[in-house]
Amino acid sequence: MTPFKDLWEMARARKGGHAAVESELPQPATPEALHAISDSQWLSDMGKRVFSAGFNWKVVEAKWPAFESAFDGFDPWKIRMLSDDALDDLAANRDLIRNRMRMESIRENAAFLCALSEERKKPAGHVLADWPRTDYVGLLEMLKTRGARLGGLTGMYLLRWRGVDGFVLSPDVTAALQREGVIEGAATSKKAMRAVQTAFDIWHSESGRPMMQISKVLALTTGPSAA
Description:
Elements: H1 4-15, H2 18-22, H3 31-35, H4 39-52, H5 57-70, H6 76-79, H7 84-91, H8 100-120, H9 124-130, H10 136-146, H11 152-162, H12 171-179, H13 190-207, H14 211-220
Helix pairs in contact: 1-14, 4-5, 4-8, 4-11, 12-14
């Protein structure tokens, strides 16, 4: 596996200098900033990411104020109690994107956030924010198995959107990890995801950089991905 300093040199050569690479690196949010995000905002973000998956994100952004109004601010404790009839009404609302299955995922994710908060005796968003960096794949697994439609890139982009430190397995990052011998094919199995975690832990130990920056550097060694 290539040392991080050599990955950096590969990215520098492709981008035209150290400053050019640094200018593209994302910054993780501070713990204080993450703790300030309400569970209602997390639920809204989950809904937005679910509706954006495979859909024109500009349309989703334009429609989202109407979603905020229709879902009354996305309070998970209220949304988890929505009846099927209420979801049917929302799915028929012409101001929204009328996809009944994705609408239902908002109710399911509200129940997930409430259950997580009850289990951990603190806001669910704090659980997401405080998750150990060395078990990022465990956080992704929880979103996939306990959340609704939050697996794969949807969960990764949800966390990246809010500044939780972690990697995004974009095509460019996946290609770099394959080149480095970390994975073969897509990282779809638990074994492959653990191998990815181990690789990022090693590169973090070498560089001291957050995982999201290592992810971006990897992407820049193969292409102009926004990973």
